[in-house]
Design brief:
It comes from Stella humosa. Belongs to the CcmC/CycZ/HelC family. Pfam families: Cytochrom_C_asm (PF01578). One of its GO terms (molecular function) is heme transmembrane transporter activity. By secondary structure, this protein is mostly helical. The chain has one domain (about 20-40, about 55-180, about 205-240). About 75% of the residues lie in helices and about 0% in strands. Helix 2 runs antiparallel to helix 8 and helix 5 packs antiparallel against helix 7. The radius of gyration is 20 Å and the shape is globular. The chain starts with a helix and ends with a helix.
Length: about 240
């Protein structure tokens, strides 16, 4: 019911005006603290050496890539099923951010994989499914502008986003379902995290910072999209009045 309340654009704008500066400030604090712990306080790994520090950007980026795609799919479902006016706007605004997180994940994964596996890229189940996720983001954004009618473009993109949601659990459980080079989960485990607190602390701080950054940037982009649509509607109304 809370999400239904904020599906109203005017109500969302009021909330975003208050919340966005706080989210931005929290992102700066968490990322600054996370980088200090990651680069200064956290020790080098006994096997990976200094290369392990890539993890503090790679892993949170991977988490955010999945989270943001879930937001895109959720907004698409909201737009198609419940006709919420904000659903498609949120999905449109989130997609480029998610694509950027996914690209960062892929690049840092390659930088991490080279010294660990001896190759920049392997057709590992986890890596391949994340690459598919990146293409889903690109496909969604391409479909938005592929039609003369923006309504048709939005509907086609929403359908793709919803269908692509099946890739999210595949990415999550790929290391358990298939024999892959990628290491299994070491944080979200039933028996607790498998990494030391000196490494877990910067990892969680960076993840929180990325999350707050996403929230702030999403609100900024949604607000800009709402304002753009309002200006477009006013211009259309003025043109019709003149005609």
């Amino acid at each position: 019911m809370v999400m239904h309340r904020f599906a109203n654009p005017a109500r969302f704008l009021r909330f975003a005006t208050v919340a966005m500066p706080w989210f931005a400030a929290a992102a700066i604090v968490c990322i600054a603290a996370g980088l200090w712990f990651a680069l200064v306080a956290s020790p080098a790994d006994y096997q990976q050496g200094e290369t392990v520090r890539i993890m503090y950007v790679h892993v949170p980026s991977a988490w955010m890539a999945l989270l943001v795609y879930t937001v895109v799919a959720g907004g698409s479902i909201s737009a198609l099923v419940w006709k919420h006016p904000l659903g498609e706007i949120v999905a449109r605004a989130a997609a480029p951010i998610g694509a950027a997180f996914t690209l960062i994940c892929l690049i840092t994964g390659s930088l991490w994989g080279k010294p660990m596996w001896g190759a920049w890229w392997v057709w590992d189940a986890r890596l391949t499914s994340v690459l598919v996720l990146f293409f889903l983001y690109l496909g969604y954004m391409a479909l938005l502008g592929a039609f003369d009618d923006p309504v048709r473009g939005g509907r086609a993109a929403s359908i793709l986003a919803i269908v692509g949601l099946v890739n999210v659990p595949i990415i999550k459980w790929s290391v358990d379902w298939w024999n892959t080079l990628h290491q299994p989960a070491s944080v979200a485990r039933m028996d607790g995290p498998a990494i030391h607190s000196s490494m877990l602390t910067p990892l969680l701080l960076m993840a929180a910072g990325f999350g707050f950054y996403f929230a702030a940037l999403l609100m900024l982009r949604v607000r800009a999209e709402i304002m753009t649509r309002r200006v477009r509607a006013l211009r259309l109304a003025a043109m019709e009045a003149e005609a």
